[in-house]
C-alpha cells in the first residue's frame, strides 16, 4: 500500500512545513500516565428492545489513532455517532477533554455545541453541500461557528485544500469531483474547525479501491501530524499499518482491544480470530 | 369581432395578473411559517397546522370566496370583491405552497442535516445556508406549475364580481351573443399568460441544474 500512496499523481496531497513540524509525533500513548482525550463510561444505546451498544468503556489518548473494526451490525458506527451525539446515547457518560455529558439526562443545546466543537466528523457518503463551491463548503462553518471573516476562512480553506491536494478544485461544485476528491474535501471541511479529534465513519466504503487509496493517504498524513483519530473501517491495512490501537466490536460489545500489531497479527479472542479469518479469506 | 371587443376583454388582464401574483406571493410567504408549524416539534402546533391545511385544501375555492365575500363581507367586515378574492386565493395558495415546501424538505438527504450538526452549524444556519437553498430548487418546478394552476383558478373571482378576464369575457358574450369567439379569445389570453411562467421555470431549473450537476 505504501507504494500506491506515494504515487498519486497530480492529486497527491502535500504537507506544509508546519504540518511536518507537528508530525514529530509524541511517542505513542502506551505506558505513559497521561490524561485520555476521550473517555466513554458504560455507554449504551438501544433501539426499542435491540441493544446496539452494551456498556462500552473506552479511553483514547491525545494523538492516538484508534481503528474500530468488526462485522456489520456490531455497533461500531453507532458508537462513533454517539461520541458527538449525532445519535444521543441513552446511558453512560461521554467525556471529551473537559466536557462531560451524562447520557441519562437530555443534553442542552449549548452543551452539545461545546462537545461538537472539539470533534470533526467524516461520513461514508461525504455529505458535502452540493449547492456550494468546494471552497464555500470548507469555509461556511468557519464563518458561522468560529466567527471567522470570509477572507480568513477562505485563506484557511485554501491551506487545507492544498494539504489534501485539491486547491485547484476550490471553485468547482462537489458534483464535478470524484468520490475520492469529495471525501478529501470533506476531511478538509472537518479540519477547518480545528477539532481535537477526528471521527471517520467508514470513509472509504463508498469508494472504489483506487479512489480509497488517495483518501487513506490523506488520513495517514493526518495521523502523522499527531491528530487524534477514531476510524471505523473495513480497511485492514489501515488498521494494521496506520492505527496505534485496534478495537474489535461485535454485538455492541468490545471483543478485543490493543496495540494494532498485536491484535491484527496475534489476536487472543476466538471471535476476533474468526472475524479476521473471514476478512482475509475474502 | 372588433378591436374594441378585444380591448374590452384585455381590460380584465391586469386584474387576473394582479390576483394571480398577489395570491401566489401571499401563499409563498405564508406557506413558510405554515410548513414550519406543520413540521414543528410541538405537537399541538403541528396538529393545528395539519388541520388548517386540510380544511383550506378540502373546500372548493369558489366556496371560500363565497364564505369570505358573502359570508364575512356581508356580516362581519365589509370587503371589496378583489380583496375578498385575494384573501381567499392567498389562503388556498398558502396551504398548497406549504405542502410543496414540505415535499421539497423531505427530499433533502438526511446526510445534509447530519453534516450540518457535525459541523456545529446552528439551526438557523442549517436551514438558511444548507437546506433551504436545496429545497428551493426542488420546489421550483412544482411551484411554477402551481402558479399556472392558480392563474386559471383566479377565474372563480368573476363569480363575486371581480372584473378579471373571465368576467370581461362573460360580459362581452352577453353583449354580442358570440360566446364561442369571445371565450376562445379569453382562453387564448390564459394560455399566453401561462407560457412565460413555464418558460421561466424551465430556464431557472436548467440554470440551477447546470450549476449543481451531480
From TrEMBL, chain B:
SUPFAM superfamilies: MetI-like. It is a multi-pass membrane protein. GO terms for cellular component: ATP-binding cassette (ABC) transporter complex. Its main location: membrane. GO terms for molecular function: transmembrane transporter activity. It is found in: Cell inner membrane; Cell membrane. The chain crosses the membrane at residues 12-35, 47-70, 182-201. Residues 13-201 form the ABC transmembrane type-1 domain. CDD domains: TM_PBP2 (cd06261). Pfam families: BPD_transp_1 (PF00528). Gene3D superfamilies: MetI-like (1.10.3720.10). Keywords: Amino-acid transport, Cell membrane, Membrane, Transmembrane, Transmembrane helix, Transport. GO terms for biological process: amino acid transport. It comes from the Bacteria. InterPro entries: AA_ABC_transptr_permease_3TM, ArtM/GltK/GlnP/TcyL/YhdX-like, MetI-like, MetI-like_sf. Belongs to the binding-protein-dependent transport system permease family. HisMQ subfamily. This is ABC transporter permease subunit. It comes from Ensifer canadensis.
Amino acid at each position: 500500500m505504501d507504494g500506491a500512496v506515494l504515487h498519486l499523481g497530480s492529486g497527491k496531497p502535500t504537507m506544509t512545513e508546519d504540518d511536518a513540524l507537528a508530525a514529530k509525533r509524541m511517542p505513542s500513548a502506551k505506558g505513559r500516565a497521561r490524561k485520555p482525550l476521550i473517555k466513554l463510561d458504560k455507554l449504551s444505546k438501544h433501539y426499542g428492545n435491540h441493544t446496539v451498544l452494551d456498556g462500552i468503556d473506552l479511553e483514547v489518548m491525545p494523538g492516538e489513532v484508534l481503528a474500530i473494526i468488526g462485522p456489520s451490525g456490531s455497533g461500531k458506527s453507532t458508537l462513533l455517532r454517539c461520541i458527538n451525539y449525532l445519535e444521543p446515547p441513552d446511558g453512560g457518560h461521554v467525556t471529551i477533554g473537559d466536557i462531560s455529558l451524562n447520557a441519562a439526562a437530555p443534553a442542552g443545546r449549548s452543551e452539545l455545541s461545546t462537545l461538537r466543537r472539539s470533534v470533526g466528523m467524516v461520513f461514508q457518503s461525504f455529505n458535502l453541500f452540493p449547492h456550494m463551491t468546494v471552497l464555500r463548503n470548507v469555509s461556511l462553518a468557519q464563518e458561522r461557528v468560529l466567527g471567522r471573516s470570509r477572507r480568513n476562512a477562505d485563506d484557511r480553506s485554501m491551506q487545507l485544500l492544498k494539504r489534501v491536494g485539491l486547491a485547484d478544485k476550490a471553485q468547482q461544485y462537489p458534483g464535478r469531483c470524484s468520490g475520492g476528491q469529495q471525501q478529501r474535501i470533506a476531511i478538509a471541511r472537518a479540519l477547518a474547525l480545528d477539532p481535537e479529534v477526528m471521527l471517520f465513519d467508514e470513509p472509504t466504503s463508498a469508494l472504489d479501491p483506487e479512489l480509497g487509496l488517495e483518501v487513506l493517504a490523506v488520513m495517514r498524513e493526518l495521523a502523522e501530524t499527531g491528530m487524534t483519530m477514531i476510524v471505523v473501517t473495513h480497511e485492514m491495512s489501515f488498521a494494521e499499518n496506520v492505527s496505534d490501537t485496534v478495537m474489535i466490536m461485535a454485538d455492541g460489545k468490545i471483543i478485543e482491544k490493543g496495540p494494532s500489531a498485536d491484535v491484527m497479527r496475534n489476536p487472543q479472542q476466538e471471535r476476533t480470530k474468526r472475524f479476521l479469518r473471514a476478512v482475509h479469506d475474502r | 369581432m372588433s378591436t374594441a371587443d378585444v380591448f374590452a376583454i384585455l381590460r380584465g388582464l391586469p386584474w387576473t395578473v394582479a390576483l394571480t401574483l398577489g395570491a401566489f406571493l401571499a401563499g409563498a410567504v405564508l406557506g413558510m411559517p405554515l410548513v414550519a408549524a406543520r413540521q414543528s416539534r410541538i405537537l399541538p402546533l403541528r396538529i393545528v397546522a395539519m388541520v388548517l391545511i386540510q380544511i383550506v385544501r378540502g373546500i372548493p375555492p369558489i366556496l371560500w370566496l363565497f364564505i369570505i365575500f358573502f359570508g364575512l363581507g356581508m356580516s362581519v367586515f365589509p370587503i371589496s370583491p378583489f380583496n375578498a378574492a385575494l384573501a381567499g386565493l392567498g389562503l388556498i395558495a398558502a396551504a398548497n405552497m406549504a405542502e410543496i415546501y414540505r415535499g421539497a424538505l423531505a427530499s433533502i438527504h438526511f446526510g445534509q442535516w447530519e453534516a450540518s450538526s457535525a459541523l456545529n452549524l446552528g439551526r438557523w444556519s442549517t436551514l438558511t445556508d444548507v437546506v433551504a437553498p436545496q429545497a428551493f430548487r426542488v420546489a421550483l418546478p412544482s411551484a411554477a406549475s402551481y402558479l399556472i394552476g392558480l392563474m386559471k383558478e383566479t377565474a372563480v373571482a368573476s363569480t363575486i364580481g371581480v372584473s378579471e378576464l373571465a368576467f370581461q369575457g362573460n360580459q362581452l358574450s352577453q353583449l354580442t351573443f358570440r360566446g364561442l369567439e369571445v371565450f376562445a379569445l379569453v382562453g387564448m389570453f390564459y394560455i399566453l399568460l401561462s407560457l412565460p411562467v413555464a418558460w421561466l421555470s424551465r430556464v431557472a431549473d436548467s440554470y440551477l441544474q447546470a450549476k449543481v450537476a451531480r
